[in-house]
Amino acid sequence: MNPNPNQIKAIYQMLFEMATGNLSFRISEANDNPELNKIARTLNQLSQELKTIILKIGFINPHYSYQNLVQNCFLLNENFEIVSFSPTVIDMLNYNQEKLHKLDFEKILTAQSVAVWKICKDELQQNKEYHSTTQLVFKDSQNQLIPAFCSVTKLILSNKILVSNVTTILFDITSDKANTIPKKTDAVIIQEVYEYIMAHLEEPLPTLKELSKLFGTNEFKLKDGFRHFFKTSIYKFYTEERLKQAHVLIQQTDLPLKEIAFMSGFNDYTNFSKAFKKQYHFPPSDLKRDTNL
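Now predict its structure.
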């Protein structure tokens, strides 16, 4: 039986949503492929079980922001020690800059990649114009693996070596450095409030009193709990998320700016423009749009 392209696309979307922290996304089953339906049911069940476990341990699970094609660069000396690097390397490896400086490059590679790197080192020592692309697997500070295709180049008129790669990074919008963990019931409530806000960005934000009544809590616990997990107020979070949505719509669609403002929950374009400029330091009309639309 031929697979349904739309259902395969939905499965890929589900995997992406789970990877970025959205455990509320679900796949509907189709009638034409039992194998894909089985995968859909498994993913739906896995997502629900993971969400339940996360809430039981009192952890809020917001969506991560997804940034693709992040370039990381390492500059090595003739001894193959790291002497400089791009700021994105710190995000990728979760190392502080003092530990990375003058560190032997192979110390951040897996054992298998060290063997590959030694071949590159031999070539670099013999060829003054060496340039190659090879796959290396990095280890971050928590020993998590990060595979990447790396460009290795010996710089002209210099003993320095440039190693660069392109990878993806997930940025967490919450902090895990809190000293105390609220009770399980508080975590569940804040998770539900978060999901409610993300699903109703185009609508006016209810008052704290209305939200607390809607989710069965009081205003103080709602305000304090949300700030505990998100390090900001409910209203500021709501406004920033609306503006993020508007930013994406401006870049990736050819919709009129006034329509985008309305879709992002702003009834007045002037207010939208002022809020956008305050957030991004330039008006929405200055944002470059995709010319291929």
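The chain has a mean pLDDT of 82.
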